[in-house]
Structure formats: C-alpha cells, structure tokens
Model the fold of this input.
Amino acid sequence: MERIVGIDLGTTNSLVAVLEDGGPRVLVDPETGAHLLPSAVAFLADGEMVVGARARELAPDHPFETILSVKRFMGLGFEHVSDDDRRRYRFAEGREGVVRFAVGGRAVTPPEVSAHILRELKRWAECALGDTVAKAVITVPAYFNDSQRQATKDAGRLAGLEVLRLVNEPTAAALAYGLDRADEGTVAVYDLGGGTFDVSILKLRGGIFEVLATNGDTRLGGDDLDGRLAEVVLAELPSVRARARAAAERAKRDLSAAERTEVVLDLPEVGRHARAPITRSDFERLIRDIVQRTVVPCRQALKDAGIDPRDIREVVAVGGSTRVPLVRRLMAEIFGRPPLVDIDPDEVVALGAGIQAGILSGGRRDMLLLDVVPLSLGIETMGGVFTRLIDRNTTIPASVKETFTTAVDGQTVVDVHVLQGERELAADNRSLARFKIPIAPMPAGVPRLEVTFLVDANGILSVAASDLRTGLERSVEVKPSYGLTEDEMERMLEESIDHAEDDVRERQLREARVETDVILGATRQSLVAHGRLLAAGERERIDAAVSALDAARAGEDYVAIRDAIESLSQTTEPFARRIMDESLQEALGNRRLEEL
Amino acid sequence: MEGSQNEDRQCWRCGAGVGTGLVCPGCEAPQPPPDGDLFAVLGLPRRLAVDGEDLERRYHAASRALHPDRHQTAEPHARQLSERASAALNRAYRTLRDPVARGRYWLELHGNPLHRENKEIPPALATDVFETQEKLEELRTKATPALHDEVRHVHDALVARLVGLEAELSRLYAGANGNGMVDELKRRLSEIAYLRTLLGDIEAALGEVSGAHSRH
Done:
C-alpha cells in the first residue's frame, strides 16, 4: 500500500512521521539518526545548496545566504516585511506581490525554500520506508490564513508531494494525546513554536475531535525570545547579529533547566569568547511582555468557544518554547491547571500528522477531526466595507452562496475581492485574491450571478460561479494577492524537476565515491594483513579490479562506479571468505583455550 | 417528513434507494444534500424544540460518514460531493444548535423573517439600554477604576438577564405549536439579539479601557 506521511513543517525544525500498527513513529535522518531537521536552507555562491543541520551551522558565516525561519514569510507580501526582517534577510527588488529572497544570485520565493526542506524529509522517509513517498499530510499553524495555507500546499507540490490535507498544528497535537486517552471533555492546546503561536479549544467525544474555537498570532514565537536576549548582547557588539542569536538561543535552553547560565558568544576573529552571566529571572524580565502576548488569544478562544476556564479538563503544551518555565506558569494561570507535557513538545505535532495520514488512508476509522476556519472570510462591498460571509470558528468544510449583479450597463466582468480578517473596513483586513467572472453584457442590475464560496477541509477557499438566468457554470480567473499564480507554479515545477534530476545524480555520485573509498581502503588493508591467504594469480586479478574502480571513481558516471564496485566485490569474495574462516577459527580456538 | 421528492432518491453510484440519507446505505457514497431545509439535513422535523444531545449525536454520526477525510481515496465526484454535503451539514448544525439562530431560521422558513437591520430598541430593554449607554459614554471620557467596576457590574447583570431570556425562549419552544406565536417569538428574538450586541459593545469598551490602564 502506498504510504502517506505526516509532516510537521516547523519554523525552527521539521519532522516526518508515519502511522504504524503500534502507533505513530517519527522517521529519522538515514545518515545521522536525527529526529529533527533544522528548517534551514543555505544557497552558497558556487550554486551549491545545503539543507538542515549543516545549513544552520553555516548561518553565522553566511547570514544572508542562509534562510532560517522561512515559515514566517509564507504567504506574505513585500509590504508585510518588517525593518527587523530587512536587517536579517536580503530581499529581491519588488514592491508588490509575493515576497522574494535574494540568495545565490536569484530571487527565491518562500514556497521554493520550504520545498527544499520538504524534499529532504521526503528523502528521509523514503530511506526509512524503503519505498517512494508521494503523498503527505502537512501541518500548519491554526491561525494561518488562506494565503499562508496555499503557500504551504504549493511548497508540497514543488517538492513532489501531493498534499492530501493541511492539518492545524494544535489539532494534530490533540490527536497525538487523544490516542492513548479515551477521554471525553474539553481540552485546550497551547502551541508556542519557533515563530508562531496558536491556541485551540477542542471538545473530545467518542473519537471525534471537534474544534470549538482557535486563535493565535502568526508572528510570535521562540524566535522573539531569542531576539530579545540577543539585543542585550548586541548592544555592545553590533557586528555579530546571527551569532548573537545563536548564543541567545543556547542560553535560553540552559535557563529552562538551570537558574543561571552564561551567554557565550564565539568571536573567532579575535580568537576568544565573550561571556555574560544571566539568571533565569533576568531572562524572564526580558521576555515577560512577549510571553504575555499569548494571553489575549487564549481568552478570546475561550470566549468564542463559550467555555469557562474551569471546564477545561486538560491543557496540552506544544512547541519547544513551552519548555520555558515562565510560559508554563502563564499557561497554568490562564487555564487554572498545570499543562500536560508527557509527549515531547517538539515531536507531538508530527506524531499527530502521522495519525491524520493514517486516518486518510482508512487506517483509523474510529477517529475524526472537525476543524474550523480561524479568521472570518468576506468580500469588499460598496464604500470599502468588509462584508463577512463565513464567520471565524465555523466548522470546515463550509460554504456560502451570494448573488451578484452589475452596476453599469454592458458590464462584461464581475470582480470579487475576497479578504480575511475581523476588522470592519476591507482595507484593514488581509487581501486574499481577486476573482474575475465574465458575464454577457446586459443592462445594469439584470444579470444574476450566483457565487459559491467554499472553504475546504484544509481551510483553503475556492470560488465557483454560475449564471442564474442560463444555469451555466462560469469560469473564475483567480489572481492571488500574495501567492503564486498557476503559471508561476507550472514554471517552478518544471524547474524543480530539472533540478531534482541534477540533485539525484549529484547525490548518487557523491555516495558512490564515498563507498569506493571505504571498499578500497578495506581491500588494501586486507591485502597487507592477510596476504598469505591469497591463491595463485588472485593478487593480479584483485589489482586489476582495484585499478578499474580507481579509474571509474575519477569519472562522473555513478553507474560505472557502482559496476566497478560490484566487480571488485565479486573478485575479492573468495579471499574475503578465507579471511572470515580464519578469524572464526581463531575465535573458536581462543575460546577452547579459555575453556581449558 | 416533508420533501416528497426526496423519498425516491437513488444513489448516483450504485442505484440503491437513499431517501433523505446523506450517504448511500449500500456503497457509502456521499449523496447531494437532500432538498428542503436544514432540519431535513439532520433528519429532524421542522420543530422549534430541539434536544441538544440528540442533535449532537446526529451531527457526529453524519460527520463520521460524510467528512472528506472518509472519502480521500474515492473518485473525484465522491470527494466533491463529500465536501459539498459536509458544508451543508456543518451549516445545519451551526444554525440549529443555537436557539436564536434556529428561531430566526424557523421564521424565515415560515415566510416571516426577522430583519437583521431592525435597530429599534425592544421596549422591555429600553431603561437598561439608556442607562448602560450613559455609563459607557462616561467611561469613554473619564476612565476611573471605580467607573470601570460599575460598568463591569452592569455587564454581569445583563449577562444574567440574557440567560433568563434564553431560558424563556426554550420554554416557548417546548410549548410551540404553530403560527399563533410568531409575534411573541419575534419579540423574544429581537430582545436577545439586542442584548447580545449591547454586551459586545460593553466588552469592547471594557477591553479598551483596561488596555489603556496597563499602558500607563
């Protein structure tokens, strides 16, 4: 059966998991065994691209070539980029549309950067499962708007993954916790990740996980805590921004367990470390106002859910930042009980995504998620007013029909501007897209166009239109405000396929060469240590196979290298068996001696 | 049950009779939502009195059968229908579980809609409304902690009033039997709607004030 994987595409780290008979399992890096893939992508000057732990290590020396926290930019436009962002990243020229990083001499969109992370996770999963992986569930912050969700889906497509479902991170976490607790009742999930904050209130009943309300802040997370601490260090040393953030991050982690630590800043240029002592209470004083920003979303979610904090049965802590003791104290204060932390807060979302992947493939028919749309959806009407069509916290899928007509005689197109948010004026909400629907020219007010707005189970909007006079479906041209058009997607897909082939060839070549070095080293050692076991003429045959492999290794064809490796193994096989027999006999002989 | 055109509906995939069901009893294929009203979607008669527990059970059972997660591996047409019908099911549940939304919808079904734009103050609330608005005005000009507490007190009293009105609405629904009560229903619904809006205004004002305080 084709496997569906669950992916937590995080701000700081990403993970991949699957559902197995025994439950969900996180899949690991085939080379290092790591569970977490740092969400870092470095675009180096020679055109080389590095993903994960190595990219993060490169960040201090290549601050503008390394994209960290790309998730913060998903589905955003240039006008949403802050001054602080401009200090940390270099952006391509442009004033409108989707934001683009200037890296490695080209302009790269956030979905393309995320696709590199997803492709690496796909590789991990394929190595672990021994099969190709083409379908995935990807988690997103519950408070992600339509553009941010669409951008995530685009990233999946660019990575060669069919994204079957986008699942909200707090809901996924609830699924992971709910799996071993046959509980009924209302739970709160507080998810403070690297760059985003979500809170969801869920009702659990008979395997149904019904989200009552959700709220959050997509620009609030552990990054902000690091930044605040780094500012203190930077006040004295403004030239080492990226290193200061890394030092701050390490100190923050220390202070989750220890009462005091030191911020240690590497300064290789001057050949020393800069050290500054800091206590947990110093740190808490620095970050208190940031952490406090999670209170209002929690209260709003409780109110929208119509739930009194006293009726919350459990509070689930999700995201690495919930390890900070101040955050845990605040959670206990808001919800009146200490948070549950028995599943690793870094892994719980991925495990939930793995379970949802299992639900979609029909493996868990006892569980079902009913999620909601996090922000109200509506259209711009006369005078720039925002008219709500679907209220926030409406269960998805959700749909609404509206009838439109024309204002001018002979009008040939109806233009529908869709926005998302809670403010009264259209201009104050986030523009999602403009939908253009062609109509036959008629006197003003005569056409009757029925437009259906559908938010699917991923929280993504689609629009369909039909002419009520003729009953015919009408095409809808979509112009996303901060997303990729279908044409751009096509072009990127073509490019990514070209690159994917290059990438695969490059990796195969590198791996074949590494393997060559290992086998040549071992052969040479055996010839020296066990030369007396060689049969007549065997040495010449082995030498010939070794030179052939040496020659192949110098070439660019990994298939030729593999063939030469195979031929050397076959040639040395009888010799290797003799060595094995001898060492076995030695071992047995030794034991006999011992026994005597 | 209403909607006679629903009775001989057949499954688009296997041809089995589906009636007003949301999925085919034979092959489990999702069906187009039944014609008629939101009550029919949940298999209920058009009655104002609804048992909340029963409603939730019906909603959960229907969701289990219909949700897109259940039809992920099916053909595109089934997936599309599952989305459309789930959206109809979610709308039905959202409307019927709230007594006020249910009452409004019932009035609409009976060709007697309550106009959302109706801004007239219900006579029974007039005194409270004027007093509250005075206090809010005062609060906007001089935000003293004492005044803040006073408004909070008014807020809590109005919440209690709302709970009472909602309880009366349930009693009205339990005894409801036709068009004789349309006027009373309209009056009660307007009162509740007005009170909800007023409470929203007070909460916004209180929020603003407490925000301003913490900034000082």
Remarks:
- The longest strand of chain A covers residues 208-217.
- Chain A is about 40% helix and 25% strand.
- Residues 486-530 of chain A form the longest helix (45 residues).
- Residues 590-596 of chain A have pLDDT under 50 and may be disordered.
